[in-house]
Design brief:
The chain contains 1 helix and 23 strands. It has 265 residues and is mainly β.
């Protein structure tokens, strides 16, 4: 068995006393099955680029480490690796200062890092473990009293999908922002509540729900809509992971918390 690219997220059956390895640009994960135990090892990977891979390897070739973890689960059969979004909001810091003028709108495509989740399949799937595939920094978003602990991510905001490299360890989030106020919307950071978003799988990359934000000024609540259908930028997308905290329709209170600090009001 050997899978590359987006195919690493397909189900895999690990026979008894066999070891599977998932290799991503920043992390390597080994999983083996011995009777009713799943043995898991996850280590940072020095390679910063390249295609994701999944393959079997001889047990004798697996790393020797004190960091092996052991999970008890008696169900056999295939297991399902899934890309899931982080468990906290992600504060995106663009690589350049941006200002959206009054009456204007724009769309960005953000690459959000995903976590690796391994679950049993079958009638009652059960999660075995999950963890980040890349390093994320901790940051605080908002004021000291009502803000929240988030993950920090420095990245580029793309205006075109074609400028994004195919990736199996990041998910593309389409974000449309409309400035319906009479003031400039200058922002240096964007806080996204990724726990409200699903993950979809395409032919060469992963996607999240599209977001549509309406900014009406620093003194008014900003509205954001989560589009629950698959993004329209690629055909044939299939859902692979549900949101950790589903949210329906327009969200005013949470959106205001998400976007009010674009300019550190």
């Amino acid at each position: 068995m050997q899978k590359t690219g987006i195919a690493v997220w397909e189900p895999v059956e690990i026979p008894q006393k066999k070891c599977a390895e998932w290799k991503f640009p920043q992390r390597r994960i080994w999983v083996e099955r011995i009777e009713t135990e799943w043995h898991v090892l996850s280590l940072p990977h020095s390679q910063r680029a390249g295609e994701a891979q999944c393959a079997f390897m001889p047990r004798t070739a697996k790393p020797t480490s004190s960091e092996w973890r052991h999970y008890l689960h008696r169900d056999g059969g295939p297991i399902q690796p899934s890309p899931v979004l982080p468990d906290r909001p992600v504060v995106v810091r663009p690589d350049r200062a941006l200002t959206l003028l009054p009456g204007q709108s724009t769309i960005f495509f953000l690459q959000l890092p995903v976590w690796f989740r391994l679950s049993t399949s079958g009638y009652r799937p059960s999660r075995i473990f999950e963890e980040p595939l890349g390093a994320l920094s901790r940051t605080w978003f908002g004021d000291p009293l009502t803000g929240e602990l988030c993950w920090g991510l420095a990245t580029r905001l793309h205006h075109n999908v074609d400028s994004l490299e195919p990736s199996a360890d990041t998910a593309v989030c389409p974000l449309m922002i409309e400035n319906e106020s009479s003031t400039d919307l200058a922002f240096e950071k964007i806080c996204l509540h990724v726990e409200n978003l699903n993950v979809f799988r395409g032919r060469i990359r992963l996607w999240t729900n599209s977001l549509h934000a309406l900014f009406r000024g620093p003194e008014q609540a900003t509205q954001i809509e989560i589009v629950h259908t698959p993004p329209e930028y690629e055909q044939g997308l299939v859902p692979v992971s549900d949101a950790r905290s589903p949210s329906a329709g327009w969200n005013i209170r949470r959106t205001f918390g998400m976007l009010k600090y674009f300019t550190d009001f």
